[in-house]
Write a structure and sequence with these properties.
By secondary structure, the protein is an alpha/beta fold. The chain has two domains: about 140 residues, Rossmann fold (3-Layer(aba) Sandwich); about 70 residues, ACT domain (Alpha-Beta Plaits, 2-Layer Sandwich), CATH 3.30.70.260. Helices cover about 25% and strands about 25% of the residues. The protein has six helices and 15 strands. The strands form three sheets. An eight-stranded mixed sheet has the order 1-15-14-8-5-2-3-4, with helices on both faces. α1 crosses α2.
Length: about 260
């Protein structure tokens, strides 16, 4: 466990007593080539369950990533078969916008629709309080904008994304302006993180839709994510980070045996 030095107090993370489990769950999935197909099936199950909550006339926040893609595709299917009408989507990335347009989903922005009825998105890690790490797909800034503007956020994951504490399974994505990249890398290191600059498959720097860079900061299991978030929020060169704390209203978890639906009261 790492202790933040300097700007942040370190205290234990209280366990929330305000969660409702609507169904029982199953065991963890295993990794491997075969299980990639199985994992996609779980993601699809969770996505389809979440899209059941979409009603005609809604303004939807459209997430980014492999799990969110299944949700966008399902929304498109329901529009095409006439089950949903007058749906408007606000996408969290350029690639989600392209996918939505190809499926016939009408797109808009905050000038015309300042409030979102429902956002469906994935997550990289979920703790028992329904706090999240997001940003594995590189769209964390727009995803957080959508989440903060939404009346309801439904997060869809497979059971492998559950974690006793954030940081146990996933490094924290931190979006920075290019000018400040080295400075913020040093800052994150000073807090106890092991930091990697995200790159594309060809080794070139990964760029967000805002042309920023991403630092993946491995803090290990976090005992005080709220303190860490406050610390990162103070830094001018950090545009946004992947700690989504208190934003998820529902988490739908697909397991091999059944689907669980956790709700924040």
């Amino acid at each position: 466990m790492h202790r933040l030095r300097g700007c942040c107090a370190w205290r234990p993370l209280p366990f929330s007593q305000h969660l409702v489990c609507l169904t029982a769950g199953a065991g963890q999935h295993e990794k491997g080539v075969k299980d990639l197909d199985k994992q996609d099936q779980l993601k699809r199950k969770a996505a389809h369950r979440a899209v059941d909550f979409v009603l005609s006339g809604m303004v939807l926040g459209l997430g980014t990533g492999s799990t969110a893609t299944f949700a966008v595709q399902r929304i498109g299917e329901r529009i095409q078969n006439g089950d949903l009408k007058e749906i408007v989507g606000i996408p969290s990335s350029d690639r989600t916008a392209k996918l939505a347009q190809s499926l016939g989903i009408a797109l808009s922005g905050f000038d015309d629709h300042p409030a979102i009825d429902l956002t469906i998105d994935g997550a990289d890690e979920v703790d028992p309080d329904l706090n999240l790490i997001k940003g594995g797909g590189g769209a964390l800034l727009r995803e957080k904008v959508l989440a903060q503007a939404s009346r309801r956020n439904i997060i869809i994951v497979d059971e492998g994304k559950l974690s006793p504490r954030l940081g146990t399974r996933w490094a924290l994505p931190v979006e920075v302006i290019p000018f400040a990249c080295k400075s913020e890398e040093n800052f994150l290191t000073s807090l106890g993180a092991s930091v990697t600059r995200r790159t594309n498959e060809d080794g070139t720097p990964f760029r967000t839709d805002q042309n920023n860079l991403i630092l993946d900061a491995n803090f290990g299991p976090m005992s005080a994510p709220l303190d860490l978030a406050a610390c990162l929020n103070e830094r001018a060169g950090i545009v946004e980070h992947g700690l989504f704390l208190g934003l998820a209203h529902d988490v739908i978890i697909a397991g091999e045996a059944e689907i669980r639906h956790l709700k924040r009261q």
